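Hey,
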Amino acid sequence: MSKITTLKLGFSNAFLVQEEGLILVDTGINVSEDKYLKIFADLQLDPRTISLLLITHGHNDHFAHAKWLKELTGAPILCHKKALQALRTGQNPEIRARNQLGRNALRRIRLAQPKNYQPVEPDVLVDREYDLTPYGIKGQVIPTPGHSECSLSLVLESGEALVGDLIISSPFTGRPCLAYFTDDEEALLASAEKLSKLANVFYSAHGGPFTREQVLNILQREHEKKSLASNQ
Protein backbone atom coordinates (compact mmCIF):
# COMPACT_ATOMS: atom_id res chain seq x y z
CA MET A 1 0.00 0.00 0.00
CA SER A 2 1.28 3.44 -0.88
CA LYS A 3 1.87 6.05 1.80
CA ILE A 4 1.03 9.50 0.45
CA THR A 5 1.98 12.56 2.48
CA THR A 6 0.54 15.90 1.42
CA LEU A 7 2.91 18.85 1.77
CA LYS A 8 1.17 22.24 1.76
CA LEU A 9 3.74 24.51 0.14
CA GLY A 10 2.52 27.99 -0.70
CA PHE A 11 -0.75 27.82 -2.62
CA SER A 12 0.05 24.43 -4.18
CA ASN A 13 0.33 20.95 -2.70
CA ALA A 14 3.27 18.65 -3.25
CA PHE A 15 3.31 14.97 -2.32
CA LEU A 16 5.70 12.39 -0.96
CA VAL A 17 4.85 8.91 -2.24
CA GLN A 18 6.47 6.04 -0.37
CA GLU A 19 6.45 2.32 -1.09
CA GLU A 20 9.73 0.45 -1.42
CA GLY A 21 11.07 3.71 -2.80
CA LEU A 22 10.29 7.37 -2.13
CA ILE A 23 9.49 10.07 -4.70
CA LEU A 24 8.43 13.72 -4.49
CA VAL A 25 5.63 14.91 -6.78
CA ASP A 26 5.83 18.67 -7.54
CA THR A 27 7.55 21.32 -5.44
CA GLY A 28 5.08 23.93 -4.23
CA ILE A 29 5.88 27.62 -4.58
CA ASN A 30 6.94 30.68 -2.57
CA VAL A 31 8.28 28.81 0.44
CA SER A 32 11.74 29.02 1.95
CA GLU A 33 14.43 26.38 1.91
CA ASP A 34 14.11 26.31 5.70
CA LYS A 35 10.46 25.29 5.28
CA TYR A 36 11.47 22.22 3.30
CA LEU A 37 14.20 21.32 5.74
CA LYS A 38 11.77 21.60 8.66
CA ILE A 39 9.25 19.37 6.87
CA PHE A 40 11.88 16.73 6.20
CA ALA A 41 13.13 16.95 9.79
CA ASP A 42 9.60 16.68 11.20
CA LEU A 43 9.04 13.59 9.05
CA GLN A 44 12.43 12.22 10.13
CA LEU A 45 13.25 11.92 6.45
CA ASP A 46 16.68 12.19 4.88
CA PRO A 47 15.99 14.08 1.63
CA ARG A 48 18.70 12.06 -0.12
CA THR A 49 16.45 8.99 0.17
CA ILE A 50 14.14 10.63 -2.39
CA SER A 51 14.86 8.84 -5.67
CA LEU A 52 12.83 10.95 -8.13
CA LEU A 53 11.31 14.42 -8.50
CA LEU A 54 8.18 14.14 -10.64
CA ILE A 55 6.83 17.39 -12.09
CA THR A 56 3.20 17.06 -13.17
CA HIS A 57 3.34 20.00 -15.61
CA GLY A 58 5.19 23.15 -16.52
CA HIS A 59 3.47 25.79 -14.38
CA ASN A 60 5.74 27.36 -11.83
CA ASP A 61 3.70 26.49 -8.75
CA HIS A 62 4.69 22.90 -9.60
CA PHE A 63 8.38 23.30 -10.46
CA ALA A 64 9.41 26.54 -8.73
CA HIS A 65 11.93 24.93 -6.38
CA ALA A 66 12.99 22.01 -8.56
CA LYS A 67 16.57 23.19 -8.99
CA TRP A 68 17.22 23.50 -5.25
CA LEU A 69 15.45 20.22 -4.49
CA LYS A 70 17.45 18.43 -7.17
CA GLU A 71 20.65 19.67 -5.55
CA LEU A 72 19.42 18.76 -2.05
CA THR A 73 18.20 15.26 -2.87
CA GLY A 74 20.47 14.27 -5.74
CA ALA A 75 17.35 12.89 -7.44
CA PRO A 76 16.66 13.18 -11.17
CA ILE A 77 13.74 15.28 -12.44
CA LEU A 78 11.04 13.68 -14.60
CA CYS A 79 8.58 15.75 -16.63
CA HIS A 80 6.72 15.70 -19.92
CA LYS A 81 8.80 16.51 -22.99
CA LYS A 82 6.57 19.54 -23.62
CA ALA A 83 7.39 20.93 -20.17
CA LEU A 84 11.08 21.17 -21.07
CA GLN A 85 10.95 24.82 -22.16
CA ALA A 86 9.20 25.96 -18.98
CA LEU A 87 11.73 24.24 -16.71
CA ARG A 88 14.69 25.40 -18.77
CA THR A 89 13.57 29.03 -18.63
CA GLY A 90 11.76 29.12 -15.27
CA GLN A 91 8.80 30.78 -17.01
CA ASN A 92 5.14 29.85 -17.24
CA PRO A 93 3.65 29.11 -20.65
CA GLU A 94 0.53 31.06 -21.55
CA ILE A 95 -2.46 30.29 -19.31
CA ARG A 96 -5.97 30.31 -20.78
CA ALA A 97 -9.22 30.43 -18.81
CA ARG A 98 -11.92 28.03 -19.99
CA ASN A 99 -14.87 29.49 -18.06
CA GLN A 100 -15.90 32.37 -15.79
CA LEU A 101 -14.31 30.68 -12.79
CA GLY A 102 -11.03 30.60 -14.70
CA ARG A 103 -11.31 34.25 -15.71
CA ASN A 104 -11.91 35.25 -12.09
CA ALA A 105 -8.98 33.13 -10.92
CA LEU A 106 -6.71 34.52 -13.64
CA ARG A 107 -7.38 38.08 -12.48
CA ARG A 108 -6.44 37.06 -8.95
CA ILE A 109 -3.24 35.39 -10.14
CA ARG A 110 -2.21 38.37 -12.26
CA LEU A 111 -2.55 40.71 -9.28
CA ALA A 112 0.09 38.62 -7.50
CA GLN A 113 1.96 37.20 -10.46
CA PRO A 114 4.90 35.19 -9.12
CA LYS A 115 8.35 35.93 -10.43
CA ASN A 116 10.22 33.58 -12.72
CA TYR A 117 12.10 30.80 -10.98
CA GLN A 118 15.52 29.28 -11.37
CA PRO A 119 15.83 27.26 -14.56
CA VAL A 120 16.59 23.59 -14.19
CA GLU A 121 17.48 20.85 -16.66
CA PRO A 122 15.18 17.82 -16.40
CA ASP A 123 16.76 14.37 -16.57
CA VAL A 124 13.90 12.13 -17.75
CA LEU A 125 11.51 13.33 -20.47
CA VAL A 126 8.39 11.34 -21.28
CA ASP A 127 5.45 11.61 -23.66
CA ARG A 128 3.82 8.23 -23.01
CA GLU A 129 3.21 5.89 -20.10
CA TYR A 130 6.26 5.43 -17.90
CA ASP A 131 6.75 2.70 -15.31
CA LEU A 132 8.05 3.82 -11.90
CA THR A 133 8.98 0.34 -10.69
CA PRO A 134 12.72 1.14 -11.02
CA TYR A 135 12.16 3.89 -8.43
CA GLY A 136 10.46 1.51 -6.00
CA ILE A 137 6.92 2.71 -6.79
CA LYS A 138 4.25 0.42 -8.22
CA GLY A 139 2.62 2.84 -10.58
CA GLN A 140 2.56 4.45 -13.99
CA VAL A 141 3.09 8.03 -15.07
CA ILE A 142 0.57 8.74 -17.81
CA PRO A 143 0.03 11.79 -20.03
CA THR A 144 -3.21 13.57 -19.12
CA PRO A 145 -3.37 16.60 -21.43
CA GLY A 146 -6.02 19.27 -21.25
CA HIS A 147 -5.06 21.58 -18.42
CA SER A 148 -1.78 21.88 -20.28
CA GLU A 149 -0.29 19.94 -23.14
CA CYS A 150 2.50 18.82 -20.80
CA SER A 151 0.34 17.46 -17.97
CA LEU A 152 1.17 14.12 -16.37
CA SER A 153 -0.61 12.10 -13.68
CA LEU A 154 0.70 9.31 -11.50
CA VAL A 155 -1.62 6.32 -11.15
CA LEU A 156 -0.62 3.90 -8.40
CA GLU A 157 -1.35 0.19 -8.28
CA SER A 158 -3.06 0.89 -4.94
CA GLY A 159 -5.87 2.76 -6.77
CA GLU A 160 -4.73 6.30 -5.98
CA ALA A 161 -3.90 8.97 -8.53
CA LEU A 162 -1.94 12.20 -8.24
CA VAL A 163 -3.40 14.47 -10.88
CA GLY A 164 -1.72 17.87 -10.68
CA ASP A 165 -4.32 20.49 -11.64
CA LEU A 166 -6.62 18.23 -13.64
CA ILE A 167 -9.15 18.11 -10.79
CA ILE A 168 -9.11 20.90 -8.21
CA SER A 169 -11.17 22.82 -5.69
CA SER A 170 -12.58 26.22 -6.63
CA PRO A 171 -10.54 28.93 -4.86
CA PHE A 172 -13.79 30.79 -4.24
CA THR A 173 -16.24 28.08 -3.10
CA GLY A 174 -14.06 25.05 -2.39
CA ARG A 175 -16.29 22.97 -4.67
CA PRO A 176 -14.51 20.22 -6.67
CA CYS A 177 -14.25 20.94 -10.39
CA LEU A 178 -12.18 20.27 -13.47
CA ALA A 179 -9.27 22.61 -14.17
CA TYR A 180 -10.52 26.09 -14.98
CA PHE A 181 -7.42 26.76 -17.09
CA THR A 182 -7.07 24.65 -20.23
CA ASP A 183 -5.39 24.59 -23.61
CA ASP A 184 -7.71 21.83 -24.90
CA GLU A 185 -11.10 21.33 -23.28
CA GLU A 186 -11.90 18.08 -25.10
CA ALA A 187 -8.56 16.63 -24.00
CA LEU A 188 -9.25 17.79 -20.43
CA LEU A 189 -12.54 15.89 -20.34
CA ALA A 190 -10.99 12.83 -21.96
CA SER A 191 -8.16 12.78 -19.42
CA ALA A 192 -10.59 13.04 -16.51
CA GLU A 193 -12.75 10.27 -17.99
CA LYS A 194 -9.68 8.07 -18.37
CA LEU A 195 -8.55 8.61 -14.78
CA SER A 196 -12.06 7.99 -13.44
CA LYS A 197 -11.72 4.41 -14.72
CA LEU A 198 -8.23 3.89 -13.28
CA ALA A 199 -8.36 5.23 -9.73
CA ASN A 200 -10.56 5.55 -6.65
CA VAL A 201 -8.88 8.46 -4.85
CA PHE A 202 -7.50 11.58 -6.54
CA TYR A 203 -4.84 13.80 -4.98
CA SER A 204 -4.77 17.35 -6.34
CA ALA A 205 -2.32 20.22 -6.15
CA HIS A 206 -5.23 22.46 -5.12
CA GLY A 207 -7.72 20.91 -2.70
CA GLY A 208 -8.77 17.32 -2.28
CA PRO A 209 -8.23 14.48 -2.06
CA PHE A 210 -11.35 13.62 -4.04
CA THR A 211 -13.29 10.38 -4.29
CA ARG A 212 -14.19 8.63 -7.53
CA GLU A 213 -17.83 9.53 -6.87
CA GLN A 214 -16.92 13.21 -6.71
CA VAL A 215 -15.00 12.96 -9.98
CA LEU A 216 -17.92 11.20 -11.68
CA ASN A 217 -20.26 13.94 -10.42
CA ILE A 218 -17.94 16.58 -11.87
CA LEU A 219 -17.95 14.80 -15.23
CA GLN A 220 -21.72 14.48 -15.18
CA ARG A 221 -22.05 18.24 -14.63
CA GLU A 222 -19.65 18.92 -17.48
CA HIS A 223 -21.57 16.67 -19.88
CA GLU A 224 -24.87 18.29 -18.86
CA LYS A 225 -23.41 21.74 -19.60
CA LYS A 226 -22.21 20.56 -23.03
CA SER A 227 -25.58 19.02 -23.81
CA LEU A 228 -27.42 22.19 -22.78
CA ALA A 229 -25.09 24.36 -24.86
CA SER A 230 -25.51 22.15 -27.95
CA ASN A 231 -29.32 22.33 -27.68
CA GLN A 232 -29.45 26.12 -27.51
